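Pasting two entries for a bug report.
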Amino acid sequence: NQRRLHVIDATCPLVIKVHNEVNRDYTQGYELILIGHAGHPEVIGTLGQVPDKFHLVSSVEDVEKLKVDNTVNLSYVTQTTLSVDECRDIVGALHQRFPNIKGPHQEDICYATQNRQNAVKELSRLVDVILVIGSPNSSNSNRLRELGEQCGIPSYLIDSAADIDPVWLEGAKAVGIAAGASAPEILVTEVVAFLRAAEPFEVEELTVIEEDVEFLLPKELVQIESSKKSMAGVPR
């Protein structure tokens, strides 16, 4: 306020959905379980929504060791950038151990994360190497690399084209490129340009699903833009 700066809350609407679920269930007296990875910024933020009665599990083994006080009023939410397959196993273990547990009406995992994981599975059938564009601390990017490896394809996580080791491409007839949910398009373009220059690769786009989901702009940004338009019409 002192510096007259505008603060815009650009939290992903899907993460806000999880926060709302947590606050609603906590208010209704539920003991809560979060499926996620310890230390991830999203997990830290979700755990911070309520003061207590919140457990974090990251594996089926964690579920087996979990001690809860209330097996009747128990609910779970998930980190939005998990591996779909990994999450399914943990949810199954929770339902097996706690038959009355309540989950979200719709899956919490981000549609973009799920679509990219499905794309990597399809990509792994067609290529010899997979390059995943994303930051080392990006949960969904790491899951893409792990998924490629699980499909039997050497997979590497890169921040940009500068991280590509030519040794990875030796003997490869086809190279797959995937990107984390937050990786900008310019990084993909640069990696494609690098491969075109370094090897005689032809570029083919693999479309697994068309993404047509749109979200409203943050209300703070809408208010700022509205104020600008109003001021533009005021004579000076």
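Entry 2 (this is the one that rendered wrong in the viewer):
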Amino acid sequence: MPVSIVLASYPPRGWARLVTRISRINKDIRGVPGFVEGRVFGTGNLRPPIGGAPVFRRWALFTVFESDEALKEFEQSHSMEMFTDRAREVWRASLRPTRVGRGTWRGWRPEVDPIPHDDAEPVLSMTYSRVRTRYVPSFLMNNKRVVDEQTDDDGLIAQLGIADDFTATSTLSIWRSQADLVDFAYRKSPAHKAVIKPSLTKWQTQNFSARFRMVESSGTWDGRDPAAAARLAAEELRRPGTHHS
């Protein structure tokens, strides 16, 4: 089942115009043949002291379709045109789910690609959660520790916060390899280990996580294609004499 992520960055007037169109885009995409699920997401910088701050100039469109043909038709649709209109930078990636850690996103639980995700292969990770209001300060403070550790990890290529409504606290991250992601999440990160149990049992009302293979990508995100950067980094790591950091 094909999945698409589109990141678009706008000048001030461009993103202000997009905000007035979000409800219409979210409604119109549901009428596209082959549509399964999808939403416009706001994005955030995960590095400020509080652990997250909105980035109004950048927005994301995450969609799921029944077939590659349906996705290609959507890419030429008026809904996509409305989303990317006036954008000064656009990055697109076609994805295939390779692992679902837990939960669902708006009722959608991906069908996993039958081709296993190789440990040396680049990966895009998505987490999606809704945090109980009383625990938002604790979640943000502890999540900031995780982000700080991620930022220092050689395997991390790109990351940003995403939210499809005001109660969601979610992330997208791209890693040099699945091995890097697993190593960080389950072995190297004390902060991640400390935050994961209360997140799942106490702080959150909903939690979804999945890994995706990046099949195709085009355009740029902050001046580069992070999927291409991840592939290059993975290739360098596989060269003789190169050791995993």
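Dev reply: Rendering is fixed now. As a check, the viewer should reflect this: The radius of gyration is 18 Å.
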